[in-house]
Structure formats: structure tokens, C-alpha cells
Predict the structure.
Amino acid sequence: MRINGLVGVAGFWTAALQAAGRGRRGGRGFCHEPGRPGRAAGHVAGTLLWLAILATPALADPQGELAQARHDLAVSEQVLARVTERAEVARADPATGPEQRQRLDEYVARVQDMVASNRERVRTLSQATDSTPGGAAPAVPGDGKPPLVATQAEEVAALETRLGVSLADFDQLLLEEARRARTRGASGGAGFPGGSGGGAAAEGRSKSGGTGPKATDVARSGSGSKTTQGSAGEPGSPGGRIESGTPGSTGATAARPPDVGDGADDDVVARQIRKLAESEPDPELREKLWDEYRRYKQGSKG
Amino acid sequence: MSAARRRFRWLAAALAAAGLSGCAGGPVKYTVEPTEAIRADRALADVALLDVGIQVLETAAISAEEAREQKTDPKILEAEARFIPFHLKKTLQQTGQWGAVRVVPARAEEVDVNVSGKLLESNGERLRVEIKVVDATGREWFYNEYTAEVTEKSYDVLDKKLDRDPYQDLYNQVANDMLAFRQQLSEKEIAAIRQVAQLKFARSLVPYAFSTYLAQDMEGTVRVSRLPADNDPMFERVNRIRARENMFIDTVNNYYANLYDDMRQPYGQWRRSYLQELNQKRELERKTWERRILGAAAIVGAAVVGSNSNSGGSAAAANVLIIGGYELIRSSGQFANDARVHEAALKELGVSFKADVAPVLDEVEGRTVKLSGSVDAQYAEWRKTLRELFTAETGLPTAAAAPGALPEPGQNR
């Protein structure tokens, strides 16, 4: 019973990640691969997703089946969050064409359907379990949400995924803020009206590379990789700290795609993104950060 | 700083720490002399570097009336409370003696070295600040009050486009005092500070998992009681979040950098103009009093000459003295009027600079508050997820993190 459930979950994940991976590898952002192969891959992935769900045999134990359904729902919600996030990034990219946008919308809609279907499945099973004598759902701990998974490993994996998605959201928030600060710094922002300050301030900024934010250090203490902590951009700034790595992490070199160079010409924001990407153990998030890095570098050159 | 002075400083600091000083833990007062910041002559080893968090300065709560009297404004003080730490950050970075140096919007116990302070007086002529430096273990490095005075010539640095402030000596002195203390520390002590900072952050985020890793001794110093395993997944997660915390502070520092860049030149010009106006006002006041005294002396002299002699020449001299004295007193009135013009100009300078700085400051603070709100919400979510992970991995309850539980010491979010 458990094995069948795991097969279903594994199929689900494989299909979802393959679909996401195909889109990403095609270029910047999500679902960027032009032409029919991308569409076919999407259909195949979608079909696999449905097959994975439908092929999961009915579990003899209603509680176990309900737990499995909840787990599937949780995982599909995580996938939806991730897919939606990538879709937003791709939509914001001017290079994304109308056809790609349409495919993107179709794919997001499919995943939304999948989530809705899983919700319905959970609802149906919950009702069935409630109506079964002695089959009341177990007590809901903590936040009032139902238990999502049945094994410790699955639960930890689901929570790790949730944490990873949350960290990615946060990275996005900070990257946008850093970009905004950079834009503001370059344009002079509110500035000092009328006085000599505006000109002088603008001069000061241009001296610092026009980035506005200066002297920013990214301390990376954790997640394993060796990371330089310093203050480039400041005259005489320290060389920085080399954090000791923690076991199990991927080294910076191993995690660095060949096309991103050595980052010698990075400005403060690019350096932040690069360091986050180098130290991110989650390959999905790491790839996303590298995409962000490439996009940023391209934007800053333009 | 001479060896004798340093010894005195250590003694004073020790007495203050022991509560034996007459001022019961108050700051040790110094008037800053010309000094250069000591720079590292080579890249320091990893083990010697400590990260520094400089808090936004406290400012004395003053009324609008008091502010007018001091030719400043609460908004200007707020801006200075951010400008001064940011310039100190730049000074520390330029020495090459430290790791990451950041200006932090609130108290940060989870950073290796925490610098806090209070802005006591700031104008074009004098800067007076209290600075307290404490490391993550709770050890107080020093608690000093620095006073620096400048002349109009000090503002020449603004014309040279140097990355220096007219009060650069004060910043250099703080940097050198911090360095002097750090150089007393062994590599082992420095490593301990970094470990404690890291574990304090872990404890603040996941108290039920890391509260036993730190202990406090009788003196109140925090020490590492044990270290997490190299492959501790929870510690790795915490470190991933800590990296985000640092990124958040870096983002806030980007805001401060914008404020600093926008403010630096007009702030310097404001202070320079302030000092010029002040000096001119003082000069006129001095001339006013000189003429009044001379005029009064001439009239008194005329009275003495007139009363002691009946000759025509003496009478003429007395008349000359009276006329001269009167003229001196009369002309002093003109100087007094001119001095009042400069007094008004000083107030106007403050009003004008406040009008300039307020929108930039409001923008920076608005963004900081907004981003802090998002970060707080994010931390709540991470805490919840980490709590669930802890329960899932260990099967242990997380009573310490239950809703309503008191936050751990140093828990900043």
C-alpha cells in the first residue's frame, strides 16, 4: 500500500519537475523553449501527472488513502506555487513571445486544475472517512491544517520543499528591492530639490559605478559553500572572510554553470545573487537564482 | 593614542565595568585629536575577521522649540543618526581590519560585534557622540563619549571630493579604539565570538533546538557549551535563513547608501555654512561688545577729564571723548543688527536643509519599515516550518516555541 502511494508521488514529482525543467532549460525564465517539443513535453508531463494520480490504487485503509491524498494536494500546491512564480518571472520578461505566454497560461491552468482535482479528492475522502464508523480524522495539531503525509521522510521532504519555496520567494523580494534601490540610486531618486546636493550626489553615485548601493557585504554563513565576505566597491576594504564549508554542500565551483564566468565584473547586486546561487543546495532554487543572475547581468549591460 | 592614555582608558573601562567608577558605568569622555585610522597592511586571515553591526544612533528627544534654539530640527537629527553610522561603516571598511560591516536598523545581538551609540550634539562646529561596543558574548569593549571640534578649514575636504568627513578624526578614533580592543583578543576568543553570534541567531530562530548550545557564566558572558554536528540539517537550514537575514540588512544598507549619497554634499555644505555664519555672528558680537566697552570707557574718561580740569583744551578733549564714545556705542548697534542677521541666517539654514533632507529620509524609512514588515511575516512562516520540521525529525514537542512563549534573549524577529 505504501509502496503504491510512493510510486504515485514519485511519478507526480518526476513529471512535474521534468515539465518545469524542460521549460527552464530552454532559456531564461519558464517555458521558454520554442516550438512543438516544448508543447509536447508539457502534454506528456501533464498526462504523466494525471496518470500518476489516477494510477495510484485505492488504498484499503481510508485513513491512509486520505493522508496520501492530502500529501498529493500539498505537493501539487507546492508545484503550483513554484510554477506560478516562474510564470510571473517569464511574463515580466519582454523576450517572452505571445505564443510562449499562451503556453505558459495553459500550463499554469493545467496545474491549477490538478490542484483543484486533488482538493476535490481530499474533500471526498474526508467525507467518506467521516461517515465511516470509527473513521474520524485524527486530531489536527498546531495550525489547524490536516496532517499531510504519512511517513517521517515524506513529511520532512514536504516541509523542506515548503521552506525552499519560501526562501525563493524571499530571495525574489530582496532582489526586487535591491533592483529598485539600484534604479533609484542611478536615477537620483528623490534627491535634494533645487540645491547643489543633487548634482553632487549624482556625481558621488557615478563614482561608485552608478549603482547607488555601495559597500554592501553579503555574509554567507551556512548552506555549506565557501563564500567570500567582503566589501568590494570600497577603497581599502577587507579581502573578506572565507566561511568554512559544511559537509554535504556543493562547492561553489561545482554549483556554477560554465556560462556565468568568474564574476569579476559583478556589481553589488550581481554579487549578492551570485553568492546566493553558489551556496544554494537546492538545485531548483539554485538554477532559478542563476537565471536571475544571467537576467540581471544582461540588464545591467544593456 | 599614547600608551599612558590607553592604560588610563583600560583602567577607566575596567572600573566602569566593575561599577567602581564615580560615574557608575557612564561613558569615558575624550576630546578627539587629529588621528588617522590604522589600516591593515595586508589581507587579514579569516580567523581574525569579525563582522560588525552598527546601529542607527539614538537621538535626544528634543522639542521643536529646543531644536530651533540649537538651529537644527528633529528630522535633521534623524538623518544624522543614519549618516554617522554609515560613515563609520565606510571608515571601518576602509581600514581592512573587519569582516562585513553593516548599519543595522535595530539591536542585533546575533552579529559578532555590535556598535551602538547616541548622538549628543551635532552642528558645523562640534560633534559629540556616545559609542558603546559589545561583542556577541556580551563582553563590553568600551563605552566612550567622543567630542570633536572643527574649523572652517576642516571643510576643505568637501572641495577635494575626498571620501572623508570634516569630523573624520572622530570616526578614525572610534575605528582605532575598536581595533585596539580586538587586537587584545586571541584567535580562540575571536572564533568563540563568531560561534556565539551564529548560535545566538540559531537560538533566536529555533529555540527548542539550540537553547542548550549556549550558556551564560557568572559575569553574564555567553559561552558555547556545545557545537552542532557538522551535518546537522537544522543548523544548515538556520544558516540558509541567516544568509537571507544578512541580505535583508544589505538591502536596508542600500537604502542608507542612497540616503548617504544624497545627503553627503548638502549636509557638508550646511555644516560649513553653519560654521561660517556662526563665526561671523561671533565676530560681530565681539566687535559690538568691544565698541560698547570702548565707548563707555571714552564717556567715563571724558567725565573724569572734564571734572579734573578747567582748561579749554581739556574741555575740548572731553568733548571729543564724549563724541567718540557715543559714536562707538552707536556703531555697535549696527554690528548687533548684523549679528542678528546671521542668527536668522543660521535658523534659515536649518529650515532649508530640513526641507531638503526630509523627503529622502521619509522615503528611506518608509521602505525600511515596509520591507521589515515583509521580513517579519517571512520569519513567522519560517519559524512555523522549522518547528514542524523539528517535530517531524525528532518527534519531540516544541513547547519553547508554543504560541505565547516568551522569546529567547536576543530574539529580534
In short: Chain A touches chain B through 73 residues (CB under 8 Å). Strands of chain A lie at 228-229, 241-242. The first strand of chain A starts at residue 228 and ends at 229. Confidence is low (pLDDT under 50) at residues 1-59, 133-149, 189-254 of chain A.
